[in-house]
Write a structure and sequence with these properties.
heterodimer; A: 307 residues; mainly alpha; MetI-like fold; two-stranded antiparallel sheet; 12 helices; 4 strands; flat; disordered C terminus; B: 346 residues; alpha/beta; D-Maltodextrin-Binding Protein, domain 2; 2 domains; ten-stranded mixed β-sheet; 14 helices; 41% helix; 18% strand; disordered N terminus
C-alpha cells in the first residue's frame, strides 16, 4: 500500500465521519421526536392495562389490539365485532370525508377568486384567509356554538325573517360537527389550492376557449387536472385533522356522539384502558396512511391519463 | 440605535419580572384543583396571612389529575380528588398521610364527615365541598313530579329533546342502576342489561351531554337536566322557574377533599392550608364561590343569605336516605361499566 492511497482512504473516512456528524442533529430529532414516541405507543399497545390507568410494565398481551375491533359480549360472553368502536370509527371517517368535500366546494371558488386578482392585491386576500388562525381553535368553536344554538344568531335571524317558526336543531347533531369542521379547516383547503391555481398558465384556458370548449369543459379538462396537486394537498390537510377532531365534537356535537378523538381520550381517562387507547391511536394513523396512499395513487393515475 | 433601545427595554422587563417573583412572598404553595372551584378571596386571604405565594392550576376530571400527578414532575402540593378516587390515590402511594385529624381546626369538621368510608378518621384528607347529582327542571315547561330519575330515563313528552345529562360515566350509571333496583358496583347481568337498554333508548330523547348547564338551563335551551346541585342552584338564581328534584330511586353524593401530595415541594405550607380551610369562615368562602356545601360546622353563619336556605343545598329529610356515596368499583366491574358507557355514545 503506498502513501497516496493511504491518504485517500484516510480522507474518505474523515469525510464519512463528518457527514454523519453533520446529519446527527437531524437524525436525533427524527429518532427522539418522531420514531421514539411512536415506538413507545406501539409498546404500550401491547402491554397489560393497569388497574387505575397506566399499564403494568413488561407484562404483554394482545388485549389492547383485539379490543379495538372485537369484544366479548357483556351479557352472553360470545366474541363479536366491537360494534360501538366500529360505529365511532366509521362516523369519524364519514364526517371527515364530507368535511373534505365541503371545504373543496367552498374553497375552490375562493382560491380561484384570489388567484385571478391583480398580483398586488392577492397578498391582501391571502392575508384575510389566514386571519381566523390568529384566534384559538377553542374560541372559534365556541363562537360557532353561539351562532348555531337554538337561541343563537342564525336561528333568531331566520325566525325574525319569518322563514322558520321554531328553531332548527343544528347544535348537538352531526350536522353541527360538519359545519364546525368545515369552518375551522377551510383555510387549510384554500391555501394549497391558491398556491397551485396561482401557478396555472391561463394561456391554456384561453386556448381552450379558442377551440370552442364550454366553460365547464375548460374547468373539467384543463383547470382541474392542472391544479390537482393543490386539491390533493388541501384534501390531505383537511382530512387528517378532521379524523382526529376532539374539541369540535365535544363542544358542537354536545358530547353525545363520539368521534375517534373522543373515544381515544376516554381510554386514557375514565375508561382506564391505556393499551386500547394506544392501539386505537395507531389504528387512526393506519387509516390516515391508507387514505394517503389512495389519494396519491389516484393522483398519479389521473395525472397521466388526461393531460 | 433602535435595536439597542429594544434590548435595553427587554432586559429591564426581564429584571422587573425576576424582581416581582422574588419579592412577593417567603414561601410558595401550588394547588391543583377542579376548574372554577377555588375562591380567589380565600387564596388572597391565605397569601396575606402566611406570606405565601399561591398558584392554582385547574383540572377537569379526576382521571386527568391522577394521570398528570402519576407522571411526576408536576410541582403541585395539594390536590382535591373526589371521594371515589381518594382510595386510588392512597393505594398508588400518591398522597401523604398528613394527619389532618390532629390539626388545630379539625374540631370544626362536621362529625358526619369524619368517619367517611374513603378515609376513615380523616388521616389523609380535609373536606373541601360536597354535593350531589340530581334533577333540575324548568317548571314552566313540565309541571309533574320531578323527584325521580324518570325525568331523564323515561322523560315525559314535554321534556323530550330538551334534556342534558352530565357526561360523567359513574353518575349516570349509578342513577340507572338504582332505577332498576340494583346496587352500585353490581355485576348482575340482568340489571346491567336493563340499564344498557334503558340508557340507549333514553339517549335518543336527550339533547346533549354537556357541561354548560348554568347558561343553558336558565336560557331555556335545556328544560330538564341530570346534573350537580350547585349548578342547578346557579341556574335557579338566573331563572326562578328552575327547580331541583331528588331522585327517589337513588342519587349519588360526591365530596371532594383536599390532600397533601407525597412529592410536594412545600409540605409545610400545604398543611397550613389544610388547617386554614377547616376554619368556618374560610370554608364559607369556598362555598360562597362555588355554591356547594362544605363539611365544616358553623360555616353557615358566614354564608351569603341566598345559600343558607337554598333548596338545592339542604336535602329534604325524606330523600336523604336515597343518596349514597359513589365508591370506586373493582377494575373488572369498572371495565364492564366503561363498555356500557361506550355503547351509549356510539
Amino acid at each position: 500500500m503506498n502513501g497516496a492511497e493511504q491518504v485517500a482512504i484516510e480522507a474518505r473516512k474523515q469525510d464519512i465521519r463528518s457527514r454523519w456528524l453533520l446529519s446527527a442533529p437531524a437524525l436525533v430529532i427524527i429518532f427522539v421526536a418522531a420514531i421514539g414516541p411512536l415506538f413507545v405507543m406501539l409498546l404500550y399497545s401491547f402491554m397489560v392495562k393497569g388497574d387505575y390507568g397506566d399499564v403494568k410494565p413488561w407484562e404483554f398481551s394482545l388485549d389492547g389490539w383485539t379490543s379495538v375491533f372485537f369484544q366479548r359480549d357483556i351479557f352472553d360472553d360470545t366474541l363479536g365485532l366491537a360494534d360501538a368502536h366500529i360505529s365511532i370509527i366509521w362516523r369519524s371517517i364519514q364526517l371527515s370525508f364530507f368535511t373534505t368535500i365541503l371545504t373543496l366546494i367552498l374553497g375552490f371558488p375562493t382560491a380561484y377568486f384570489i388567484a385571478t386578482r391583480p398580483p398586488h392585491t392577492r397578498e391582501i386576500w391571502v392575508f384575510l384567509v389566514t386571519i381566523p388562525f390568529w384566534t384559538n381553535l377553542l374560541i372559534r368553536t365556541f363562537a360557532m356554538q353561539q351562532v348555531i344554538r337554538n337561541e343563537g344568531l342564525l336561528n333568531n335571524a331566520l325566525i325574525w325573517l319569518g322563514i322558520i317558526k321554531s328553531p332548527l336543531q343544528i347544535i348537538y347533531t352531526d350536522t353541527a360537527n360538519l359545519l364546525g369542521m368545515t369552518y375551522v379547516y377551510l383555510p387549510l383547503m384554500v391555501l394549497p389550492l391558491y398556491a397551485s391555481i396561482e401557478k396555472l398558465d391561463f394561456r391554456l384556458v384561453e386556448a381552450g376557449y379558442d377551440l370552442y370548449a364550454t366553460r365547464f369543459q375548460v374547468l373539467r379538462k384543463i383547470v382541474i387536472p392542472l391544479v390537482k396537486p393543490g386539491i390533493i394537498a388541501g384534501s390531505i390537510l383537511v382530512f387528517i385533522p378532521s379524523l382526529g377532531a376532539y374539541v369540535i365534537p365535544r363542544v358542537l356535537g354536545g358530547g353525545k356522539n363520539m368521534m375517534l378523538g373522543n373515544l381515544i381520550e376516554m381510554q386514557f381517562g375514565a375508561g382506564r384502558n391505556w393499551p386500547l387507547g394506544a392501539a386505537m391511536s395507531i389504528t387512526l394513523m393506519i387509516i390516515v396512511m391508507v387514505a394517503l396512499i389512495v389519494y396519491v395513487r389516484n393522483a398519479s393515475r389521473g395525472g397521466s391519463g388526461h393531460v | 440605535m433602535k435595536s439597542k433601545w429594544i434590548t435595553t427595554t427587554a432586559m429591564a422587563a426581564v429584571a422587573a419580572l425576576a424582581f416581582a417573583n422574588s419579592a412577593s412572598a417567603a414561601g410558595e404553595l401550588n394547588i391543583y384543583n377542579w376548574g372554577d372551584y377555588t375562591s380567589p378571596e380565600l387564596i388572597k386571604k391565605f397569601e396575606k396571612e402566611f406570606d405565601v405565594k399561591v398558584t392554582v392550576t385547574d383540572y377537569d376530571s379526576n382521571d386527568t389529575a391522577l394521570a398528570k400527578v402519576r407522571a411526576g414532575g408536576h410541582g403541585f402540593d395539594i390536590v382535591v380528588p373526589s371521594a371515589n378516587y381518594v382510595q386510588i390515590w392512597v393505594k398508588e402511594g400518591l398522597i401523604e398521610e398528613a394527619r389532618p385529624d390532629q390539626m388545630e381546626n379539625f374540631k370544626n369538621v362536621d362529625p358526619r364527615w369524619v368517619d367517611v368510608p374513603w378515609d376513615p378518621g380523616r388521616h389523609y384528607t380535609v373536606p373541601w365541598q360536597w354535593g350531589l347529582t340530581g334533577i333540575g327542571v324548568n317548571t314552566a315547561v313540565y309541571k309533574g313530579d320531578i323527584n325521580t330519575s324518570a325525568i331523564f330515563l323515561d322523560p315525559p313528552p314535554e321534556l323530550v329533546g330538551k334534556i342534558n345529562v352530565a357526561p360523567e360515566m359513574n353518575d349516570v350509571l349509578f342513577a340507572a342502576i338504582k332505577y332498576f333496583g340494583g346496587d352500585w358496583c353490581t355485576t348482575d347481568k340482568e340489571v346491567l342489561r336493563k340499564v344498557r337498554d334503558k340508557l340507549v333508548e333514553a339517549k335518543t330523547k336527550w339533547l346533549a351531554m354537556d357541561y354548560s348547564v348554568t347558561e343553558k338551563l336558565p336560557s331555556g335551551d335545556y328544560a330538564g337536566v341530570y346534573y350537580w346541585n350547585g349548578a342547578i342552584m346557579r341556574s335557579r338564581l338566573k331563572n326562578p322557574d328552575v327547580k331541583m328534584g331528588y331522585p327517589k330511586e337513588g342519587f349519588p353524593y360526591f365530596m371532594d377533599s383536599a390532600a397533601l401530595l407525597k412529592d410536594a415541594k412545600n409540605p409545610e405550607n400545604a398543611k397550613l392550608f389544610m388547617n386554614f380551610i377547616m376554619d368556618p369562615e374560610n370554608a364559607a368562602m369556598i362555598s360562597a364561590f362555588a355554591k356547594y356545601a362544605n363539611g365544616i360546622k358553623g360555616s353557615d353563619k358566614f354564608l351569603p343569605e341566598e345559600m343558607k336556605t337554598a333548596p338545592e343545598l339542604v336535602v329534604p329529610p325524606e330523600y336523604e336516605k336515597a343518596g349514597e356515596f359513589l365508591l370506586s368499583c373493582e377494575p373488572e366491574t369498572q371495565q364492564l361499566y366503561t363498555r356500557i358507557w361506550t355503547e351509549l355514545q356510539k
